[in-house]
Amino acid sequence: MRILLVDDEGELVSTLAERLSFRGIDADWVTSGEEALKKAETETYDLAVLDVKMPRISGIQLKGMLEVKYPDMKFIFMTGHGSEDDFRAGSSKAYYLVKPINIEALVSKINEVLKD
Amino acid sequence: MSYQWDILGEEGLQFFGKMSASISHEIKNVLAVVNENAGLIQDLIYMHEKGMPIDPEQLKSVSQMITKQVKRADTIMKNMSKFAHSTDQLIKTESVSVNDILDVVTNLANRFADMREITLEKIPFDEPIKIKTNPFFLENLIWLCFDFAMDATGPERTVRLLAKEIDNSAQITFSQLGSLPVMPLETFHGKRVEALLSALQGDITVDTQAGTLSISLPV
What we know:
- The structure holds two protein chains of two kinds.
- Chain A contains five helices and five strands, in the order E-H-E-H-E-H-E-H-E-H.
- By secondary structure, chain A is an alpha/beta fold.
- Chain A has one domain: Rossmann fold (3-Layer(aba) Sandwich).
- In chain A, strands 2-1-3-4-5 form a five-stranded parallel β-sheet, with helices on both faces.
- In chain A, strand 4, helix 4 and strand 5 form a beta-alpha-beta unit.
- The longest helix of chain A has 13 residues.
- Chain B is of the alpha+beta class.
- Chain B has six helices and seven strands; from the N terminus they run ααβαββαββααββ.
- In chain B, the strands form two sheets. A five-stranded mixed β-sheet of chain B has the order 2-4-5-7-6. Chain B has a two-stranded antiparallel ribbon with strand order 1-3.
- In chain B, strand 4 and strand 5 form a beta hairpin.
- In chain B, helix 1 packs antiparallel against helix 2, helix 1 crosses helix 6 and helix 2 packs across helix 3.
- The two termini of chain B are 27 Å apart.
- The interface between A and B is medium-sized, with 18 and 22 residues.
């Protein structure tokens, strides 16, 4: 399993990647949509975890771009929305996590998405 | 309440809500980083209990990252506090520093600018400018100008901000607006801006050739 973490908060995704590695999940991280597109050209990812709000290319736009090129890639969104209920009300996306993220919830969501 | 106050009330609430949402989003990001670093310490302790040595340098780096985020949150909250207190005296006007007001709004606008990949450049003032005005209305007007100026910026992607006192008026100028000639000015200069200008007894001039938008307020 190889995943790509994308968030403009570099200190968040770098720490998240390290914590996922302790749990046996191989994760790369980048801080923009452009870097994610470049990275996906050289590496194969099963899943991408995307921040919803990022400069230039938003997480939603990035998902659209990545799934055209890599139809098998799965996605989880991270959001800074106030609460899970707010996000649920504003989006039909099935896979999302609200910041601050619980690492065990992320691991469980990753497993759930990859089984789907 | 008059029609003008209805507009000011509605616009003011929207402005306050938009800024509060932006601040809460930024604080969520700070909390997310702190949360991951606290979690990383827990992971390291857990692994240490299983026999893996702890690297003091890594702990130092985690601690520094948390301290940095705490400072970031403190700066955000100090600005939010100044912003929130600008509503303390909505009717009565008071003597306020234009410099301070511009600092508050520039700090609030910076996150929106980052999302649009625009730099906000505030040119330091020679002399502090004090005016008697309603601080919240002025912040609201400056924000609307910022929002418009960010859409009107040229290829440099920079909005330059300068305040100075000229002939008994305080002038706040947004420059580097290279796209002004193609901007629909009527959508900006609508009821909201008119109501704020009327409440502040101010005026706005737009120079499409020079790429500038200026607010004038009585000193």
